[in-house]
Amino acid sequence: MALIDIRDIYKIYNPGENEVRALDGVTLTIDHGEFVAIVGSSGSGKSTLMNMLGLLDECTSGSYYLDGHDVSHLSDDELSDIRNKQIGFIFQGFNLIASLTAQANVELPLIYRGLKKEERSKLSTEALTRVGLENRAHHRPSEMSGGQQQRCAIARAVAARPPVILADEPTGNLDSKTGKHVMEILRELHAEGRTIILITHDDKIAAEAARVIRVQDGKIISDTRNS
Amino acid sequence: MNFFKENIRIAVFSIQTNLMRSLLTMLGIIIGVSSVISIITIGNGGRDFIVGLVRDMGQNMITISVNHNRVDASQMISRRDISSIRAMEHVRHASPQMFMLGSFATATNEGMSLALAGNSDLQHVLGLQVQQGYFFTEAEYRGEVPVALIPTAGAMDIFGHTNVVGQRVQFTVGGQTETIRIIGIADFAIAAGGMFGDGGNPLEGMMDGFDAGGLIGDAVMVLFMPSSVIHRMTGGAGTYDNLSIIADDERNLDAVGSAAVNQLYITHGNAGSGAYTAVNMANYIDLLDSVINILTLFIAGVSAISLVVGGIGVMNIMLVSVTERTREIGIRKALGAKTGTIMMQFLTESVILCLIGGTIGFIIGVAIAAFVAWFMGIPIAMAFTTVAIAVGFSSAIGIFFGIYPARRAAKMLPIEALRRE
After folding, report:
1. Mean pLDDT score of chain A, rounded to an integer?
2. Does any domain span residue A167?
3. Is there a domain that residue A3 lies in?
4. Interchain pair A89, B414: CB under 8 A
5. Nearest 10 degrees: Cα torsion A140, A142, A144, A149
6. pLDDT digits (tens, 9 = 90+) for B130-185
């Protein structure tokens, strides 16, 4: 059974004469343990697709099965629960909370999962250590470099050990050296058996994935596997 | 528990980072709570003070008055009426109170004179303490002997010393002049505190007032004297339109009052005419109490309006805070925060804001009340309910006005929230 199975997904803004079809009938399946890159230029609909896959946005029509469960008709709170347990997000803009330390940021999804303090600090320390930020745990985002912030965001995404990692342009705001480091961490996570979905406009980065899906004008125009 | 602690931490942090804004927001709550508390406290203290004063002035006192428009001269209270009422059970003292403005003259001084007259029980009815000499007797009252006592302050004003027993004063009223012999010095037993000036007594305060207004010459002489003397001088019928009775116990006030009134109706054969009314201090105190209560409630209600205004201020700030932190809300929702969690976070913040404001307001309110109480010389009457009202009101405002912004924040789609900068 596929991990992600979406069928005929449409996302239409301003329905009517000036309608914009951000997603125009997308059908896609992704299996457990895949490393998929979704590639497209800006405005192609790849970000919208990622928001759909991450359950951050509602589609206009279509169906979405996540791990065999229909998630297209769930309530707000049920969606929050699934995001918390199934998906780890890595955003282009890091999206760390400025007022919290690195460790507190990493612990956020663990708090929402309802874990106890000791367990939270164990998991968050583990996650920070794996991205090499163990000695930045008590720094706030403003006291860290861009690369450190992104590694912190990765730690947050993996701390709760979700099966799916959704990364939206994770190297977009980073120089090439730190970008490489981030990609390395993603590859490691993939090697551990996690499903990685990477959104990018950069073919070189996409080339690191096992499967590349190209999106244009809200449609999938190609779906190839790197050998 | 985790969420709760976390929420408090977030709320405190958010208030700290926007300290100035938070303080300005709290200002409304602070003003509201402090004015409610100070007004209620001062009101209660004032009531206790005034009620205490009234009670002291006329403990166990019943006042019987004659309704002038329903009686003719024959139905006024006579000396015989007073004698029979004095003989009644539970009656300690009974004296009419007569106030008569006249003038006086001594060898060195002259001016206005206020005679406070009655029978030998006048001492008890007015609450007088004899400092020197003796209070005039019932025999002197019956014999219309022209004697009088004067207060210490009056003795100092007019004679310059208190060694006045045996002095004579020319007293003129109704065109008649008589020589009055001073037989003692008597003062009101209750010092009324600072409220009526340093005279220490409402009546003396009133005198001071006349003085200051220049209505009366440079000296006013208060004379406590037998009313029979004044009746003789003015050619009156020797009857009274009022009678003050002092009962033996507070519990007998109503019974004694109605018994005395009945006695009067029987004697004068005018039952059912409504000629006589008995009012006791308990009635006065009840009336006074309710008047002050209504006043206090009214003023507290007015200041409660500022609490509502403060609450709207809190709502505004929470809306600003929600807008400012939309992105944070989006992140939290993306990471798995539920609607209720986000709502609790913002509600906690507004409740904390209001509780801090309420606490500051409470402290300021108590300080104001303490200062005013000290200034006016009244006791501080801090009630537990006042504190409960302050705390309850401010947290209620926090919840009530926090719900709308909190809901707005919580209901957002994560992607909408994340898109905002």
Report:
1. 90
2. yes
3. no
4. no
5. 80
6. 999 999 999 999 999 999 999 998 888 888 888 899 999 999 998 899 999 999 99
Cα separation of B137 and B185, whole Å?
A: 15
**Euclidean distance between CA atoms B119 and B90, whole angstroms:** 19
Residues 356-415 of B with CB under 8 A from A: 411, 413-415
Q: With an 8 Å Cβ cutoff, is A117 touching chain B? A: yes
CATH code assigned at A131: 3.40.50.300
Interior CA angle at A220 toward A217 and A226, to 5°?
Answer: 130
Residue among A188, A133, A137 at smallest CA distance from A165: A188
Q: Which residues of A touch B331 (CB under 8 A)?
A: 95-97, 108
Angle at which helices A146-159 and A117-130 cross, to 10°: 130
- ipTM comes to 0.92
Tell me how far CA of residue B64 lies from CA of B275, B277, B278, B383, in angstroms. 10, 5, 4, 37
Task: For chain B, say whether A54 makes contact (Cβ under 8 Å).
Answer: yes
Give one word for A127, left, alpha or beta, with left for phi > 0 and alpha for psi -120 to 50: alpha
- Domain assignment present for residue A9? The answer is no
Looking at the structure of chain A, the number of domains it has is 1
The verdict on residue A194 lying in a domain is: yes
Please give the Cα distance from B358 to B351 (Å, whole number).
10
| A118 touches B: beta carbon within 8 Å | no
State the pairing for strand pair B91-95/B242-247: antiparallel
Show the low-confidence residues of chain B (pLDDT under 50): 191-202, 204-217
Structure tokens at B3: 């969420």
Q: Residue B213: what pLDDT?
A: 42
DSSP line for B321-334: HHHHTHHHHHHHHH
**B104 phi and psi, to 5 degrees?**
-135, 165
pLDDT digits (tens, 9 = 90+) for B281-339: 788 778 888 888 888 888 778 777 877 887 888 888 888 888 888 888 889 999 998 88
Which residues of chain A, if any, have pLDDT below 70? 227
